[in-house]
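Quick one: structure tokens for this chain, please?
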Amino acid sequence: MASGFSPLIAVDRRDRKPLHLQIYEAYRRAILRRNLSAGQQVPSSRQLALELRVSRIPVLNAYGQLLAEGYFEARTGAGTFVSSSLVERRKVSRSRTSPLPRTNSSPRPVSSQSNVVPRFKPNPWIYGWGAFAVGQVSLDHFPFPLWSRLLARHGQRVHARALHFSDPMGSKEFRTGIATYLRTVRGVNCDPEQIMIVSGSQQALEMTARVLLEARSRVWIEEPSYWSIRRVLGLAGSVPVPVAVDHEGLNVAAGIKACRHARAAFVTPSHQFPLGSTMSAARRIQLLEWAEQVGAWIIEDDYDSEYRYEGMPIASLQGLDHNSRVIYIGTLSKTLFPSLRVGYVVIPHDLLARFVNVRLAMDLYPPHLYQAVLADFIREGHFARHVRRTKQLYHERRGALIASLREQFGHSVEIMGADAGLHLVWMLPRGIRDEELAERAAEERLWLFPLSQCYLGTPLQGLILGFGSTPTRAIPGAVRHLRRIVGGFES
């Protein structure tokens, strides 16, 4: 692990301690604190002497002592490195967060909102790659050669304005392409001036909460719901009000009964996450009327609306809104790839200045390069073609998953949310706990997301099964593997 970077060493010529000993102790301390790692290259004695503005002799003496004690090792023709086998280092605590004990520490005040439930837990089903993982797309069908050419095009034609501070709303060209797409495909009422480019839908949710909510604001959320919305509301100091979801989507009447004067409602009307229902026209109108009557906001997360396999396409809720009560959020993670981290917010005109203020406090403006590439990707028709191809692909994979589940678990198996999107929900047989099953399956590289984690109250037991990244031919084998695992939990 070569680097050659110099550690932070300060020599004090007024100190009675010799220079070589100061250098020796600085290196030894850096190694024991793990600021320098095993195998990391250190500067040559000549280079370090120049940087410290000292004679080379004290550096050579310090290096000689570190070599003799086993902290350094010399490699012929390569240089000097931190030793890959240190006896003393093994005595140091393995904790990287607290390398040295604290004594008589003064108070360490932090915001109470930074410790909200749910705390982050790196569950294997979130980060595993493969069968049933949620939020994954078909990278094997992404047009990488074309994408690389577009990246090269903009990487080789860099304009000064692309390297400077830019519009906090994002590239006008890219926003124009997004506006055209949303008006045409999603029925969104918008112009480019209303669109802000953000780092994925998660940042959009966070920014929206900062603009609209205050501490103790009561907010409707779907029950069950996207798990991260609770973290967003917790950090804002707001109070989530879980509202039941049925086959028509959010139960607006139940929400009014629970908390009529909520500040906002976070909804996924086109494809409810995670259960997959579509909000009916009657519920949509009822929700919009409620928001207008009490002065509330509606945040519409339209996270994978491109993929619908049964019935007619469902237009956005925002397209029905005549009072500018809906903030519309979308993402390209589900159509292109998640690490792209590009999403967008359609903002009512009277809120634009407030969103810009929040944006300037967070990260000033979005990066330029991907916006330029995506503007070409959309304008030249590549995005539309990619969506059409992947929609057919996911339709096949979804069909294979449903057929395999019924083959292995019987035709009475309860499947929800299969009409759209990149996942479905399988309700587990009585007596099986989804988290225990998911933990066991992860040991065998099956990534099952427990439905119970999406509930604020008493949860149902089920599994959210993604099918975006698994080839059609591999799905039957993966379901047979799942059948074997489930068998160990059945009484």
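The first strand starts at residue 72 and ends at 75.
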